[in-house]
């Protein structure tokens, strides 16, 4: 088992679509580049964090998983696993903040998994990821009005299912949850700053049970992705599942005004290529364009759909849906230098791929959520590592300079 190094670093209305929005801060791409699919991406970096990596001297975890081996790993665990990268934010010092998932997949088995933001540094020369710190998420001021799992108000995977993250200029974090779905605002030390913000009119089964209302969103189908506007004013949380009554396979993108502390009346609709697909992440390219990871629910050889799209809120074809352009097929990445193995084509065949970040106009970082210890997309019978790859696109994204950091 790998132990972490003890290191340190110095009421809504639907928006009427069809009005083109200014890109702001970046020249708009030519029409051919805006609408035509990108070609094959090229693998430029590969690093991984071993599945059996744990936070040192942390609380035991996995006691609700039983004692039967899973992919060769036997729970419970003496420490907290570093797993499930469900969101990523870049720091100015070359490190990244990554959001661990809610634990082991659901509210019933994750009560001893502490919600945490991990700080990592990829070393592509050594093909490894170093964990250099992190913070636990807590609610010491008592902003959560319902009973928490732990009396010390350290948050666990039975309290929230955290899936998306935005780091603000002041160092605080906005995090999207799936149990509400809620927006959660934490300070730089991981302390909740305000009461969870619900999405009006939408309830997952977990919040519906607590409120005594009917759920209209599937379990684990809340805010899987959340972008921030390039000027930092708005958040754009994207649901992973279809709200009851909406067309099957369509997902709502809402707009939240951080200054007002409330949702606006603007809303857009993203359509999945298949109603059985799901989204993995959602980030801004400029004022009107965003990247979306869309995936099937398969892994390994069965994985057939793992793609990144750029979407345009302008709805230029007036069909009531955001426009989609394919940017990268993650199952068909050229690997001429054999960075990811011996083959000339690299596959990212994980069940859940939940992190994308723009490093420059032609380079993306992509990470998986390894669902420790359950997913085994890379090698059957072996728990997946957390992999951190970089890919070079065949042409520029023409991103807003503020996105490039």
From TrEMBL:
InterPro entries: Phytase-like_dom. Residues 80-372 form the Phytase-like domain. Transmembrane segments: none annotated. It holds the Pfam family Phytase-like. Residues 1-27 form the signal peptide. The keyword Secreted does not apply. It comes from the Bacteria. PANTHER family: BLR7070 PROTEIN (PTHR37957), PHYTASE-LIKE DOMAIN-CONTAINING PROTEIN (PTHR37957:SF1). This is Glycerophosphoryl diester phosphodiesterase. The lineage of its organism: Bacteria, Bacillati, Actinomycetota, Actinomycetes, Micromonosporales.
């Amino acid at each position: 088992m790998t132990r972490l190094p003890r290191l340190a670093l110095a009421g809504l209305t639907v928006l009427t679509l069809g009005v083109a929005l200014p890109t702001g801060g970046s020249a708009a791409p030519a029409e051919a580049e805006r609408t035509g699919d990108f070609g094959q991406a090229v693998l430029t970096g590969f690093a991984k964090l071993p599945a059996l990596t744990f936070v040192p001297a942390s609380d035991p975890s996995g006691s609700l998983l039983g004692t039967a081996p899973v992919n060769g790993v036997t729970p419970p665990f003496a420490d907290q696993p570093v797993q499930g990268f469900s969101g990523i934010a870049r720091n100015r010092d070359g490190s990244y903040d990554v959001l661990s998932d809610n634990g082991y997949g659901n509210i019933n088995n994750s009560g001893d998994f502490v919600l945490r933001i991990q700080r990592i540094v990829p070393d592509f020369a050594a093909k490894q990821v170093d964990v250099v710190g992190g913070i636990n998420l807590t609610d010491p001021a008592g902003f959560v009005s319902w009973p928490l799992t732990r009396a010390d108000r350290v948050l666990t995977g039975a309290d929230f299912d955290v899936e998306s993250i935005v780091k603000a200029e002041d160092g605080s974090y906005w995090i999207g949850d799936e149990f509400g779905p809620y927006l959660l605002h934490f300070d730089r030390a991981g302390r909740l700053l305000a009461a969870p913000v619900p999405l009006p009119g939408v309830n997952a089964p977990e919040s519906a049970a607590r409120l005594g209302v009917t759920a209209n969103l599937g379990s684990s189908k809340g805010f899987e992705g959340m972008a921030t506007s390039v000027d930092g004013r708005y958040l754009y949380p994207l649901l992973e599942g279809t709200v009851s009554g909406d067309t099957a396979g369509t997902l709502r993108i809402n707009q939240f005004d951080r200054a007002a502390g409330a949702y606006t009346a603007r809303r857009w609709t993203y359509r999945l290529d298949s109603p059985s697909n799901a989204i993995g992440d959602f980030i801004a390219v400029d004022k009107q364009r965003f990247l979306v990871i869309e995936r099937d629910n398969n892994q390994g050889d069965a994985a057939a759909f793992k793609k990144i799209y750029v979407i345009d809120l302008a709805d230029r074809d007036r069909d009531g849906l955001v426009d989609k352009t394919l940017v990268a097929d993650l199952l068909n990445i050229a690997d001429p230098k054999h960075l990811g193995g011996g083959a000339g084509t690299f596959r990212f065949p994980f069940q859940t791929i939940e992190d994308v970040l723009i490093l420059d106009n032609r380079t993306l970082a992509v990470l998986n959520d390894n669902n420790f210890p359950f997913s085994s997309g890379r090698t059957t019978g072996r728990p997946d590592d957390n992999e951190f790859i970089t890919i070079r696109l065949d042409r520029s994204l023409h991103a807003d300079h503020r996105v490039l950091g």
